TrEMBL record:
It comes from the Bacteria. It comes from Rhizobium terricola. This is DNA polymerase I. GO terms for molecular function: 3'-5' exonuclease activity; 5'-3' exonuclease activity; DNA binding; DNA-directed DNA polymerase activity. InterPro entries: 3'-5'_exonuclease_dom (IPR002562), 5-3_exonucl_a-hlix_arch_N (IPR020046), 5-3_exonuclease (IPR002421), 5-3_exonuclease_C_sf (IPR036279), DNA-dir_DNA_pol_A_CS (IPR019760), DNA-dir_DNA_pol_A_palm_dom (IPR001098), DNA/RNA_pol_sf (IPR043502), DNA_polI_H3TH (IPR020045).
Amino acid sequence: MKKGDHLFLIDGSGFIFRAFHALPPLTRKSDGLPVGAVSGFCNMLWKLLTDARDTSVGVTPSHLAVIFDYSSKTFRKELYPEYKANRSAPPEELVPQFGLIREATRAFNLPCIETEGFEADDIIATYARAAEAIGADVTIVSSDKDLMQLVTPNVHMYDSMKDKQIGIPEVVEKWGVPPEKMIDLQSLTGDSTDNIPGIPGIGPKTAAQLLEEYGDLDTLLARAGEIKQVKRRENIVANVELARLSRQLVTLRTDVPLDLPLDSLSLEKQDGPRLIGFLKAMEFTTLTRRVAEACDCDASAIEPSAIGIERGQAAHGPDLDAATPTSEAAPGAVSGASAVSPAATAANGDLTPSDLAAARAAAFHGRKIDITSYQTIRDLDTLKGWIAAARETGLVAFDTETTNIDPMLADLVGFSLAIADNALQPGSPEIRAAYVPLTHKTGVGDLLGGGMADGQIPMAEALAVLKDMLEDPSILKVAQNLKYDYLLMKRYGVAIKGFDDTMLMSYVLDAGKGNHGMDGLSERWLGHTPIAYKDVAGSGKSSLTFDLVDIDKATAYAAEDADVTLRLWMVLKPRLAAEKLTRIYERLERPLVPVLADMEERGISIDRQILSRLSGELGQKAAAFEDEIYELAGERFNVGSPKQLGDILFGKMGLPGGSKTKTGQWSTSAQVLEDLAAEGAPLPRKIVDWRQLTKLKSTYTDALPGYVHPQTKRVHTSYSLAATTTGRLSSSEPNLQNIPVRTAEGRKIRTAFIATPGHKLLSADYSQIELRVLAHVAEIPQLRQAFADGVDIHAMTASEMFGVPVEGMPSEVRRRAKAINFGIIYGISAFGLANQLGIERSEAGDYIKKYFERFPGIKDYMESTKAFARENGYVETIFGRRAHYPEIKSSNPSMRAFNERAAINAPIQGSAADIIRRAMIKIEPVLAEAGLGERVRMLLQVHDELIFEVEEEAIEAAMPIIVETMEHAAMPAIAMRVPLKVDARAAHNWDEAH
């Protein structure tokens, strides 16, 4: 870098949160992965780069870098442990996106910079001062006031959201002091967001006045006794040291060790294929097209990149340790078969559950984990010795290493064990861990026919010894995301019995408060960042399967996993009892692991010919729609291009209601098109229909055959237990829970899911379960009576609201009541109801008001639920499952309203999810007791529906058992005040059975 160059420094962490909070939630269509922040980040970065490279727009950078927070473990924490202590963990749906955003930055061919122990602001400050010293200009892309202390004649800031430059005049206008006094001002005012104390009672205006009068902070503090206002004088005199401490906290470091020198930050040409590959993997079709056009690339010829979702994607996410336990925040103990052993109880004396949890948290947090101490077990005798030690303590952590993230396709490469050695004190932090390699190869040459690495126990011998331990229920096996290991080992003939899952413990304790991946939990509870998988096996196209990883590296990585998992168990298990959540874990979570693993292993058959025919039909329909669209538009254009579509609708055709996005293009979102269609515009309706068809084709009819397993010839979805705040399961690879059931095309797709010869698919579906739960939890006599009498609930609601007799009721009246019934559950607004029903907002508001007047119990329930959530930070299902909403007190009105709606819905949706979980756990034992265990197999769970494959001769016997078990699943824990109803039907395909 030289004099006259221009360096852009992008506050990446600021971009992340702006992208996340400014945009509605977005998930990847193929698997439901949250990608809203990634999408917003990519779009913001693309616009910035596009403008930056356009010399006609303004400043053109010669160098550019994106700076991130490594984690919140910084020197400021050591200086002041309460620094940022009031920050909550990132939202659950944001956590998996941190790593993806870093991948995005690299895909943009930009330096992605973070430094352990320092915040992004310190790195920015160091680069800015270094560039300024050379004579270069600097633009910091951020609006963060903490960075305004860096502004000089050669260092500016740029608020990309407002398209506003921030120089010295703008700082003075905003804060009343020049940039060089921002440190002093912040030292006086403090910062509630970062928990910087400052001086109580001193706000920005007062601070600016004081600094103008006394010149600087040191002079002010030295002459504080001269201040005329008594209260102000007393506050400053009493808090001089707080002001000095605050100055240390707000002063940005300019001496951060930089891994990349300034010369390495040159703005390189965009690598179109690389960026398009990433965007296609994220399924960002609009931005993919824009990039392809700008880079003159054929996007259709570029394959999506292999972007792995790393374990503990939360690692290096901002403020991930905000939930670090204290004696108040981390209570707990345990009871039952999987409790701490009697010896541990004796060793811990008369500790209460809260005492034990606090002691465990203190013992394990920040304690050094020595990965050099791990052992590689290379002979059978040594392995037997470890298993004997596990038998002695009755507790062992277990983890597998494999060749694939899909347990149905993975080969076992090795496994790791961790043991708390002292049998008298299994709560002791003294833990040893080891790795047992089984099928490592000698290197890349194995791909050309090389051999096995030396010093490994033969697979059959190791499994014989391991099987004895894993199938012994008296030895508690602890794992993280056990379902994967359970299914994998089942394929090797081992049925794990007697287990705990730290991921599920965390989920029960803290759903909604953060990520439950091992790496994130390790940082939060142990203060330890585990080895990243990519550091062992590489990433991208150069990554290795684990069987090609050097055994020494594999040992450090794999044994650490088991070590960390056992430590997490020590910390989390006591909290379950202290927080009265043991029964949720032991009755709703842990028992579901083998149930889901069995379902995933079974899979379901599909008819490829049906899907192929449907793909052809959908393609033809889409093409026909395109011809109609061209005719209505009066010209041919790219129907999938929002820009071209917007220009047609609002530019050429001049349709009303057009609004432009931040990029300056017309908005053509689904809601915009639906609004235009509701007003009678034919072209938007055709576009909506075309989008639905093309989405079904790409997501299902084209994609599903690719998921057929090469050996079983069936499709095996994967279920996530800890993916939602409410307790609902999610399905991925492929996602079978989002196939539409209300459209003809969606129903046709379901016809491709078929029973094998001699069997039928049996669908058992809860009828209006969420409304029934609402009637149970809220005092609504009319709803309860209607359900008890088997009355059409929507017709009854319409009759109550509109005074129309149920007999002969017009379908439109019932439809409106149905929309309100279901809308109320999700906290629908007058605006939302108006859009749904195609009526004026005032009329929709009147409907909602009247609804609450007729059913006051619902309004009471909603208000009491919001009040409970504000007071406790969580809500509960009827069984006691907790869903946390830490942002419910947010100062951001839209964020607060979103959390309030979610909190209202969670007890209802969560209770329904708990009921079906209980049914899934109960059904197969009941069927086995009836002698039907081998003749009925549960295959899928889709929201409120269970799908079974049943021998044709067993249907008559199985159906009433399934229905009876599902309808009474809440018992004996809860006696429902309204009856649950299950509709069941058997047929040769899913659509006919539904």
